Amino acid sequence: MRKLAIFLALIPPLVALYLLYTGSLSLFELALAIIIATVISYLFSSALISRPGRLYNPIRWAWALIFAILYLTVVEAKAHLSVLKLIFVPSRARPAIVRIPYSVESDYAITLIANSITNTPGTVVVDVDEERKYFYVHWIRATDLTEEGAKREVSELFERYARRIFE
Amino acid sequence: MLDGILYALLAVSVFFHVLGGVALLRFPDLYTRLHGQTKSTTFGSIFTVFAVLAYAISKYLETGMGKYLSMSTHSVVALLALMITNATGAHAIARAARMVGVRPYAAVVDELEEVEE
Predict the structure, then answer these.
(1) I need a labelling partner for B23 at 20 to 30 A (CA). Which of A106, A157, A167, B12 fits?
(2) Which residues in chain B are contacts of A22 at CB distance < 8 A?
(3) Are A83 and B39 in contact (CB under 8 A)?
(4) A105 and A75 in one domain?
């Protein structure tokens, strides 16, 4: 029963993605979309989804949209300015690999935080310790080397949104 | 008017792409170069996609043809794919480098080193 719900839950978003991408609503495209979505969902749904209810929670989607807009404009621009300065004055760099704790459970949330950190200029996740819940982050201008301080500077915003979206 | 906006967006985009190349020359080691290269490229591509979006939407309002709408969805999907793969690729390069023993240049502190020993 649960498996069936997971299998069915993945089909509508896949159909929607296909139709959005082809940009047509003809009967042929619709039928093809449903067939392809069914096959993909059969193959991958158990690996991709564990709680289908969350996929259809509009509040989570709204937070995801807010995070995407905030991230693409404010966070990226701010971080780019600081790296821009470093490109012209490399001697101001203070590289370090710091340890940053995180406290989320699901794989999606961990991936979102890690990818956000890496996509932000100035920080790259080098390794993840999933047992002890640490990111190892290469930080080009480390201003705070303690765990808590580094977390506040680097990943706290991402973690807050990751929890709202995926947990 | 529209041309001006498009050129401005594309200029910003090209500026960041060039900056990525400059960073590759200026920074001393693999990790710092990763910062310069991968990130500047993402930001540059964001502005390229904004330019495509502005063009497609204005053309759609002008002509009402559906192909301009699918043009904009394609570029947004491409941007999402780029952001995910770019970050994942950077992870993979950084982790692989660390595993074969590339040390960060002039690092103040290296917490991973303490774990390994």
Answers:
(1) A157
(2) 70
(3) yes
(4) yes
Summarised one tens digit per residue, pLDDT across range A16-62 is 888 888 877 889 989 999 999 999 998 988 888 877 777 788 888 89
Residue A46 contacts B, CB cutoff 8 Å: no
In this predicted complex, what is the ipTM?
A: 0.77
**Which structural domain range is residue B83 located in?**
2-103
Angle at A44 between CA B81 and CA A114, to 5 degrees: 45
- Which residue range forms the structural domain that includes residue A93? 58-166
Distance CA B51, CA A106 (A): 36
Q: From the DSSP assignment, how many helices (H) and strands (E) are in chain A?
A: 8, 3
Report the length, in residues, of chain A. 167
Based on the structure, what is the number of domains in chain A?
2
pTM given for the model: 0.82
Q: Does A104 touch chain B (CB under 8 A)?
A: no
The kind and range of the H/E element at A139 are strand A134-139
